[in-house]
Design brief:
By secondary structure, the protein is an all-alpha fold. The chain is about 85% helix and about 0% strand. The protein contains 1 helix and no strands.
Length: about 110
Amino acid sequence: MEKTVGVDQERYNQLEAQRKAIDDARQVQTEQMAKEREERVAANTVEAALARIEAEKKASEDAREAKKQALMERAGTALESQQLMFNRENLQRPNSAPQPTPKTVVNR
């Protein structure tokens, strides 16, 4: 009977060692998965921040371009108004071409 107890104890020790090895492997795997999850979250956070920065940059550029376009349109409108006023003034004059002035002859 002592041999049976010794064999059973040996078998128990082997099974216990296997169980411990499996538990250790699971623990390592769980830690690795947690680390990978943290890295993905960090990467997603960085990607989101970069995307937000790019969107803000694009919006700023679009706003700058819109402002520039509005200024150019206003400048064009002002120039057109000046041209119209100039043309209107010239049309109101009876003879817009300069008239020759009579020359006076000076005796020397």
